[in-house]
Amino acid sequence: MIFISSSCVRNEYIWESVECLAKEGFKNIELSGGTKRDERAINKLLELKEKYNLKYRCHNYFPPPANDFVMNLASDSNEIYDNTLNVINESLDLSVILSSNKYGFHAGFLTDISKSEIGKVVKGRELFDKDEALLRFKNRVEAIQENNKSDVKLYIENNVVSQNNYANFGNRNCFLMTSYFDVMQLKKELNFNLLLDVAHLFVSANTLGKDFSEEFFALNALSDYLHISDNNGLSDENKRLSTGSEIYRALSLADLSNKTFTLEINDDLEGLAESYSFLEGFVSKDNSMKKTSSLK
Question: What is the C-alpha separation between 56 and 75, in angstroms, rounded?
Fold first, then answer.
């Protein structure tokens, strides 16, 4: 199943983005950040769900809090942790209301990031002790898992480290879980489901000098939920899939059966539709091969 991120189109309120995508024929929509908080949102989303026969999924920074901040479960600030936990709990409650069965949030950071820095250049500064930050992250995720009494499956998304941000911290990585090694190290301490953002992985692999194909195929085997977009390998651009790109090639060769996807394409609706068509073709190919193999 392929979802479309609400962030693919820009509007003031979430229901405006949802209806824009629904009118283009997209039925599966992942609700993400970037819109204003409004108490009308739940009723509006339920109305659109019925009107267009939609399926929803909440992601990370949705519903947006009253006061903007950047979520960080590894933070040494109790205020940021409390605010992050409030967003996650509200997202889980909303997932139940909207009949959504998966919710993903980002892995933590070794510094608290301002809203103006998210997805952009992060200024160099002192980092949290990594071992202490990882322990905070582990303990907090375990508490969230334990307190999650719903049927909503929780996922942690890999972060992206760009070359600029890596250099700004003296070639130190201020983001948790950016590589296969990071994922496996965390899995030794924490039982969790991986939300694999392929575009994040491509940038991080280039920054850290790792082989993207090896990283992707190893992590793809561990995940049933992928975020998809394309970029230049230097920063997370949320571009349409390009037939000549490494990401396109990796997806075309990978086993994508029995997975769900979210497209995060910010180019335009034409690019979004083309990327959807590419991904649909990859998935159909894998499902056909599985079916043929089972008949032998």
Answer: 29
What is each CA distance from 286 to 54, 123, 173, 218, 280, in whole angstroms? Answer: 25, 43, 35, 17, 10
Q: Is 72 exposed, middle or buried (0-12, 13-18, 19+ CB in 10 A)?
A: buried
Q: Which of 72, 83, 14, 30 minimizes the C-alpha distance to 197?
A: 30
Burial class (CB in 10 A: 0-12, 13-18, 19+), 34: middle
Considering only CA atoms, which of 26, 30, 23 is closest in space to residue 5? 30
Cα–Cα distance for residue pair 110/104, rounded to 1 Å: 19
**Residue 196 and residue 226 in contact, taking contact as beta carbons nearer than 8 Å:** yes
Q: Tell me the backbone φ, ψ of residue 171, rounded to 5 degrees.
A: 60, 40
Q: What is the per-residue pLDDT across 137-174, written as a single tens digit (0 to 9) for each?
A: 999 999 999 999 999 999 999 999 999 999 989 999 99
Q: What are phi and psi of 4, to 5 degrees?
A: -115, 130
> How many CB atoms within 10 Å of residue 99?
11
